[in-house]
Every structure is written in C-alpha cells, then in structure tokens.
Design a protein that fits this description.
Blueprint: E1 8-10, E2 24-27, E3 30-33, E4 39-40, E5 45-46, H1 51-68, E6 76-83, H2 89-99, E7 106-111, E8 121-128, E9 145-148, E10 162-165, E11 168-174, E12 177-178, E13 183-184, H3 189-206, E14 214-221, H4 227-234, H5 242-247, E15 252-257, E16 267-274, E17 293-295, E18 309-312, E19 315-321, E20 324-325, E21 330-331, H6 336-353, E22 361-368, H7 374-384, E23 391-396, E24 406-413
Parallel strand pairs: 6-7, 14-15, 22-23
Antiparallel strand pairs: 1-2, 2-3, 3-8, 4-5, 6-8, 9-10, 10-11, 11-16, 12-13, 14-16, 17-18, 18-19, 19-24, 20-21, 22-24
Helix pairs in contact: 1-2, 3-4, 6-7
C-alpha cells in the first residue's frame, strides 16, 4: 500500500468559491467536499426563500461540484445535513429525494445552534474516487460500492445503513432506536448511547466486520452535561475484543452538543470503519491484512477515551482538539484566536508525530461556540493553511467540552498506507 498519492484540490466557478478552502479535495479513493451553504454562486448570497429553496441550492452546489470532476451523484457515499430547525427535515427529505431518486447514501442529520451567513441548512458530501490519485500508476479501475442494510438495526428509507468503498465503511448515524419496535428506547442518555452502539454493532456484524475496526466516532449530544453518562455506556463497548483491550485501543473521537436530533433523541452516533478486504476489483494483495495504526504523542493533549490519530489505509483520522496546552492540561489564556491557534498546534503536533505535515490535510471540521467568531478563527486558519487546500465544514455548537470557544478535528492523507499484518 505505497505510492506517491497526491492531495488533489479542485474548484469550479459554477459553485461558491472561497480563498480559505477548496470545494473538493481528492486523496486516494475518496473526494472530500466542503460543506455547502445555500449560496447562489452568481451572487455570492443566500438564495431567496425558505428551507426548500435553500436545500435545493445546497444539493445543487454539490451536484455542480461533482459534475465538474467528472463524477455523478450516485458516487456520493455519505451526506451530512445540518439544519437550524430539526422540524425542517420533512421539507429537506423531499428535496433529497429529487437528487437521490433510487440510491440513497449513508446519512447524518443534526440541528445545530448556528450556521455561517445565518443559513437554515448546510449539506456536505463524501464522494468515491475510483480512479484514485496515485500519479503515473495504474488504478483499480471501476471499484465497486457495496451497500448494505440489516433488519437487526433501524431501517430508514432516506439512508443506507452502510456503504463501503475501497478500504472504508461509512455508517449512517445511528439513533437510539430499537429495531424491533422502531421507537426510541426507554431510559436516559446511558440507555440511548448503548442502543446507538448496539445498532452500529449490528450493522457491522451483518457485513462480517469487527466492532474494533471502527477508526473514528462522532457523538452528537443534545446536552453536553450528559457526557459522563454517555461515556459510561461508551466504555462498555470500547475496547471490544481481547486484542483491543490488551492495547487499550480507542477510536479517534469528536463529541459535540447539538440543538436537536431526529425523534427528540438525546444522542446520535456515527462511525467510520476500516474495510481491510477492500471492494473489488482491487487486487488481493491490496485487500487483505491492513492494520490500524493508532498513535498518541505527549506534544498534544491525551484522552483515555480516544486516540489522537488512527490511520488506516490512506487516511489519518484525528480526534477533535480543544485549545488545551498539553504541558498544563488547561485551556490556554485568551479568547477564540488563542484557542484556535492551540487547536491547530495540537493537530500539527499529532500529524507530525506520524511523520506527516499540515499540507497533507484533506478536510477540517470547525465547531464554534459563537458563529460570529468565524472571522477571528479564519485569521488563524489562514496561517496554518495558507494555500486554502483542505475542504472544510463550520457549524455553531451551543456548547463545547470544557466550555471551549472552538473545537477542531481533521482528516489527513496517509500516502504510505498502512502495512498488512506480518
């Protein structure tokens, strides 16, 4: 699994353009799209109208970007929909059906406290990239996309439970729904967290993938004060196997408070999972025995519930970073600028500990306590990514861990891949 993979950033004038980030960044067999706001690229302003018009523009921008790189909407693996009001999802669903009339990708839906430009909706997408990005080398060709649903986990007409492509499985965000009753389980956040993870486990078991193949977990909590209760249930599932317990393996993780979740849930969990077997027609030697590489460094804050970076195949998945000084374990002094700078310093320390550089970033996700702080964060952001290469997402969160003003996670390319088991 080696080769000089390149970070391939692309933009089209037919969709909203920014100097700070790229519309789509391809690396290996995935295209990472920046979250799309309902901006008319001709005016640079939000489209007039309400949630339906804004949703149409978001999906339209995504389709335009996909068309510009010679892909199609059926190449979408996962979509993430952020809305200001969870009650708007009925209207958004109708728009999604127009853009995905038959195939439905995996999906995450959350209501957030705020979105840039005071938009009502923001949509992002992850796209397959069958041709890969290794220069001057034969590619795997038309790699197959594997979709899967099981009755042992909740079914949803608007999403597929699992979509595998190349060496990753992407799992739809799981709500705490009992698949037998199709209702939220009785109890509080502990019981709901356990059901979310049971659903993820059922999805993975249906495709013969171990639970410990999870590389990244995103936890969306209705109330951040429920974190301890959520963690209680979380640690009953991770680590899962004897081997994982022996090395204390924990996936990379992001925890964020949201304004609302479908079905009035208290928690929702999504997972990104390694897929060592790959999807055909990748060669056998490229498909078996790849390993997870989990790394921590003392140069960044450590957490017993997550690993700072988990690499698998051609991607490094970074846990969310707060503005914590690793030397003191406390939040840095100052405001949002100082906290953002420390977040990026922590990310830089983590990626450098595995012999990579900031230029290998393909996607950056920013969560802000106050969306009005975005200009200040952008000043800092531009010093770490002066070329504006990574794709990006920005959302406003009503609360962040340790009462932070900003939290940032990231995905990096891993050109050398991860080796097969000896």
């Amino acid at each position: 699994m080696s080769g000089d993979n390149v970070v391939l950033a692309r933009n089209t004038e037919d969709a909203p353009v920014s100097d700070l980030y790229s519309q789509t960044v391809a690396f290996s067999h995935y295209n990472n799209l920046s979250a799309q706001l309902p901006i008319d690229p001709a005016t640079g302003e939000l489209v007039p109208g309400g949630i339906t018009e804004q949703a149409v523009q978001c999906f339209g921008n995504i389709e335009t970007i996909i068309d510009s790189i010679d892909h199609v909407m059926n190449d979408v693996i996962r979509i993430t929909i952020f809305v200001k009001d969870i009650q708007d999802m009925d209207a958004v669903d109708e728009v999604q059906k127009v853009f995905f009339p038959t195939y439905v990708p995996t999906r995450t839906v959350v209501a957030v406290d705020a979105l840039p430009m005071d938009a009502l909706i923001q949509v992002e997408a992850l796209i397959s990239n069958g041709e890969g990005t290794i220069p001057n080398a034969p590619q795997a060709g038309d790699i197959l996309k594997y979709t899967n649903n099981t009755h042992n986990a909740p079914l949803d007409v608007m999403s597929t439970q699992s979509v595998a492509f190349s060496h990753y499985n992407n799992i739809s965000a799981q709500l705490p729904i009992d698949p037998k009753s199709n209702q939220i389980v009785v109890g509080g956040v502990r019981e709901q967290t356990a059901q979310c993870l049971k659903n993820i486990k059922a999805v993975l078991e249906s495709i013969d993938v171990p639970f410990d193949d999870i590389v990244k977990v995103n936890v969306f909590l209705k109330d951040l004060a429920d974190t301890d209760a959520m963690n209680e249930a979380y640690t009953r599932f991770f680590p899962d196997s004897g081997i994982a317990r022996a090395v204390a393996y924990m996936p990379a993780r992001t925890v964020v408070e949201v304004a609302g979740l479908p079905m009035h849930a208290l928690v929702q969990i999504e997972a990104v999972v390694s897929h060592g077997d790959g999807t055909p027609p990748q060669l056998v030697e490229d498909r078996h025995g790849l390993i997870l590489e989990a790394n921590n460094t003392d140069a960044a804050p450590k957490c017993k519930l997550s690993t700072q970076t988990v690499a698998f195949s051609h991607y490094n998945n970074i846990s969310a970073q707060l503005g914590i000084d690793p030397a003191t374990g406390a939040m840095v002094a100052g405001g949002v600028k100082e906290q953002a700078e420390q977040c990026f310093k922590n990310i830089k320390a983590i990626i450098e500990c595995v012999d990579h550089v900031m230029e290998d970033a393909v996607k950056v996700n920013i969560f802000l306590k106050n969306i009005d702080d975005l200009d200040a964060v952008n000043e800092v952001y531009a010093t770490f990514f002066p070329g504006g290469t990574p794709a990006r997402r920005v959302v406003g969160a009503s609360a962040l861990p340790m009462d932070a003003l900003v939290q940032i996670d990231a995905i990096f390319g891993n050109a050398e891949g991860t080796p097969p088991v000896a």
